[in-house]
Amino acid sequence: MKRRTALWAFAIVLAAVSYPPHWYPETLRLQLTRLFGASDDRPLPPSVPPRAPGAGAEPEVYCPPDPEGWREAHEIEGVTIERVDSCVADNPWLLAASVRGTNNVSAETLMKSGLTADAVEVGADLDGDGDPDEIHIRLEVAELNGGSAIVPGPVTRYAIAPGIEPGLWVFAPKLHGMAVENIESQQARPELRLPSPAIRVEQGDRVRITLENSHYMPHTIHLHGADHGFVDVTGEGNDGVPLTSEVPVVPGAARTYELQPREAGTMFYHCHVQPHVHVQMGLQGLFVIEDNRPDNWVQTLNPGAGQVRVRSAESRAAYAAEFDLHYLDLDRQLGERIRAHNDPRLITRSMHRDYDVTDATQDYFTVNGRSFPYTFRESLVTGNEGDRLKLRVVNGGVNGIALHTHGHKFTVTHRDGVPLPEGLRTPQDVAWLATAQRLDLDLRLVNDGLNAYGPGIWLFHDHGNRGVTNDGIGPGGNISAIAYGKYLQSDGWPKNQGVSWDNYFTAAYYRREVPVWHNYLPGLLDDTGTDRWLLWRLVGLALAGGILLALLWGAVVSRRSPR
């Protein structure tokens, strides 16, 4: 009996001593302060550094090397290809072949381009002005970061940011060889990427675009905003819309879309089969119709958009450079579905019957197929003081974009391919783009306090706060910059004057494993260590509670037992 009484007393005292004071009711804490004074200040638990570097914790190289000199200016097959000032550039032989036509270049150029001999066929000069007017483009459908029954993880891998590889579908130029870099790699070759290539033709050209459906689902091509007939000359559907104009192009089949556009402008193309899924998986691209000018050899394909390196006659006459900017947002949960199964029937059911777009959220935000920090590798708008630049912008995402430039004001000259009256062309630093909307922007790097504030590295991005994150972690998303030549290193990387970017070039940062300010405020706002004082109190409280429960159970049992 005495032992049990002692245990009761011990447990009660231990519970009272162990009970954390900050758990007391406020009135009791105030009363104890009046009686005994304020308690001593107890230091916070120490900060702990991020865990030891592991997979994805070491920073990547900011600017990949350019061993083949793709960034440099080239003269290939009589095509002048402009230099790229940012650190990643497209294959110049592909650009030359897309201008002259894969049916008109040497075997060496064709081999270096990666295109098939019929990928971009260029025909006759119908109006006698020195450039071709018959263009036949062949596109396929490629899957990126899909599943495989042979190897673990995604295959034909394409990262939009460090460690971020969403499932994607894209239209791709018709290519020879493998989908990956080499037989030892799962990385997608450079031509297979997001977004689908920007396509350029000339006003009045006779254009044929053939979709050779190499995918496991039906697809079409809808020429959004471009002047085309509802049916072609044979009466076959030509609008790419299964509901009204045609049966989709089934796997293994092909269909040719025809147009002879009468108006120039910045247009759009995309799949129109189950568009709430297919368009948002990446089956979309810019479709640009250039003004008809003499000797106007245009860059038929601009893989992944970005800088236009073979510009039209009009662009060369008026601008120092031209850039295609393609914005897109992605639903991570949608993209993951192509890795869940290897049976096309199960993928189709998952994406078109189980997936509910009305409950979807957009997690990744890209410009030209990349999210920050990769946007600084290849999606910079570059120029020098006094330059006039042309930007063609499309919003291919679900959400609207409030496109904002730092340090500059631009002028919207065209909306949805239609020129705006001079009276509506006013300088602004935020432009709203609804879904599928296109804007042509005139950007003048003139340091007059209105057009520009002077040389630097000036961000441009969606001013909606979600758009500058990678699945909620910032900085990320569609952040890029207007970078002046004097602020670029020889390799094309900006001479940033802010914080270290090492964290942003690690997969661990976007897995939420690294405190956001660790690289320049180490320890101050890192994760907290163990509060040992509180831990011991909780251990004592648990021990006291266990003893009390045991004593109560013993008392109950003894009362029920027969005497």
3D structure, described in words:
InterPro entries: Cu-oxidase-like_N, Cu-oxidase_fam, Cupredoxin. The chain crosses the membrane at residues 534-557. This is Multicopper oxidase domain-containing protein. With 563 residues, the chain is an alpha+beta fold. 19% of the residues lie in helices and 23% in strands. It contains eleven helices and 27 strands. Strands 14, 15, 16, 18, 20, 21, 22 and 24 form an eight-stranded mixed β-sheet that branches. Strands 4, 5, 6, 8 and 10 form a five-stranded mixed β-sheet that branches. A five-stranded mixed β-sheet has the order 9-11-12-7-13. A hairpin with a 2-residue loop joins strand 2 and strand 3 (79-81). Helix 1 packs antiparallel against helix 11 (532-560) and helix 3 (92-100) packs across helix 4.
CA-based gyration radius: 31 Å
Q: In angstroms, what separates the terminal alpha carbons?
A: 16 Å
Based on the structure, what is the oligomeric state of the protein chains?
single chain
- Mean pLDDT, to the nearest integer, reads 93
Q: Tell me, what's the shape? A: elongated
Instruction: Report the biggest beta sheet as strand number plus sense, adding barrel if it closes.
Output: 8 strands, mixed
Q: Given the structure, what is the number of helices?
A: 11
Helix content: 10-25%
Q: Could you tell me the strand content as a percent range?
A: 15-25%
Q: Which spans of ≥5 residues are poorly predicted at pLDDT below 50?
A: none
Which structural category fits the helices and strands?
alpha+beta
The strand count comes to 27
